[in-house]
Amino acid sequence: MSLAHTYCAATDCSNNSKNCEGTGISFHRFPANQGLRRKWITKCRLGKVNPKASRLCSNHFNNNDFQRDLKNELLGLPLTRKLKPEAIPTIFQSRPLKPPNQARVERSGQRERKQMVAELLASSYEQGMIKNKIWPFSIVNDFV
After folding, report:
1. How many structural domains is the chain composed of?
2. For 126-137, what is each residue's pLDDT tens digit?
3. To the nearest 5 percent, what fractions of the chain are helix, strand and coil?
4. Model-level pTM greater than 0.85?
5. How far is 49 from 37, CA to CA, in rounded Å?
6. Residues 91 and 50 in one domain
7. How far apart are CA 119 and CA 111, in angstroms?
């Protein structure tokens, strides 16, 4: 038994050999063919990848992307999942975008309003519109 676990390289996939043990999920090497490898990397939305160390789990392939294991089928042995040479991963689950945190949106709006009021007061002061040269900065809070 190997101490190192195999992890799926696909973005937003948490499958690894430890948590998928006994589930029938298999892990597959990136192809040696550079053109096909580039297609895999593009589909997985990966930047740099070490093709010798990276693997993709079988969840990212359709059933028709796998070759039948006729020998093991006939002998009644456990089936192995081998990809067809031209197989390209097509199944990816992207996480839905979270709605913006309402409290964060409100705080951001308050900061913008405070800054705008402070800039207006400063420009009014510089233009001589405010006769009293000292004003309380807490006045900014009164306008938001």
Report:
1. 2
2. 766 555 555 555
3. 35, 10, 55
4. no
5. 10
6. yes
7. 12
